[in-house]
Amino acid sequence: MKLVIAIVQDENAPKLIKSLTAKEYRTTKLSSTGGFLKSGNTTLLIGVEDDKMDEVVDIIKAECKYKKIDNGKEEVDVCGANIFILDAEDYRKI
Ligand code: 2BA
């Protein structure tokens, strides 16, 4: 099993969560703040079986769009998603 940590733009999060939930993936949404822009973003925790990883990445790709932001000093490219994929050693529901 993998633990996916996906940092996405706030505006893309509702549709992404809806699409993941529709495919029966479970998500936890955390409110987060980017260290560079110091503005809000969304971090999702998603527990995924190994053989479902490609589908999850495809859903994230489909729902999360890249954008440019002018922070007053420069134009900054913000990715659709920054995704960390970790091996989950164990997972239990109690
Ligand atoms: P922020 O840290 O607010 O970064 C927003 C965007 O600013 C970044 O987009 C990148 O294009 C730019 N940026 C970030 N740090 C920079 C720097 N030191 N110098 C110049 N430009 C810089 P993304 O790379 O798509 O990142 C979007 C958000 O994802 C980040 O928001 C941060 O919250 C998270 N993130 C990205 N990479 C990460 C990493 N390696 N570890 C933890 N969080 C990460």
TrEMBL record:
The record's InterPro entries line, in alphabetical order, gives: CdAMP_rec, N-reg_PII-like_a/b, N-reg_PII/ATP_PRibTrfase_C
Q: Which SUPFAM superfamilies match?
A: GlnB-like
Its domain of life reads Bacteria
Protein name, entry field: Uncharacterized protein YaaQ
